[in-house]
Write a structure and sequence with these properties.
alpha+beta; elongated; 34% helix
């Protein structure tokens, strides 16, 4: 036999060393799962704590019966609410922090927000403060003008709520309609004083 054949035969009979240490691998996986569960629990506690801090926010009004004919309607996504002017200060009380599908209806009486799977609410026309196009709200950043942000008063707070229509071209009409509605309400209130 040649030395090369002898060497191949010797390598074939040698047993390779164990590569996997199952005990250590299982311990690492269990440790990682415990760590992920702990981080999730901390995030949940933070969410609950934020809700407790915002417990002074009054209950959300429900839509009154017999709303007048709608001016505008859209379907899309509700991305959350924040303190007005502070796009990272998310409001989670009364379900305002829950993202969901949305059906918005603007009438002369106000803004009806219907959210399947989350709490619906109604913003009376007198509480609407304005609307604008923006690029982000807590937890959601889009292209410039990709988000319809409606500012409204609730209790003693001003709130920004972010919506994205399934057809983003509708946003400009909503901004104009809400701002015109707000201007006519402000003018009427000023004339009454």
């Amino acid at each position: 036999m040649t030395p090369a054949v002898i060497q191949l035969a010797a390598e074939a009979t040698r047993k390779s060393a164990e590569v996997t240490d199952w005990g250590a691998r299982i311990a690492w996986v269990v440790g990682l799962l415990v760590f992920i569960a702990f981080v999730y629990w901390l995030m949940r506690q933070g969410w609950k704590w934020r809700g407790t801090l915002q417990s002074d926010l009054p209950e959300l009004p429900a839509a009154p019966g017999g709303l007048p004919e709608h001016r505008l309607a859209l379907t899309g996504r509700y991305h959350g609410s924040t303190t007005a002017g502070q796009w990272l200060d998310r409001i989670v009380a009364h379900g305002l922090g829950v993202r969901s599908r949305v059906e918005l209806t603007l009438t002369d009486a106000g803004l009806d927000v219907v959210r399947p799977g989350a709490t619906d609410f109604f913003v009376p026309a007198a509480q609407l403060r304005g609307a604008r196009l923006d690029k982000g709200i807590a937890g959601k950043v889009l292209t410039e003008g990709g988000l319809l942000v409606v500012t409204w008063a609730h209790g003693d707070r001003l709130i920004d709520s972010g919506f994205r229509s399934d057809r983003a071209a509708e946003h400009a009409a909503w901004v104009e309609a809400i701002n015109d509605m707000n201007h006519s309400i402000t003018t009427t209130e000023g004339a009454e004083r």
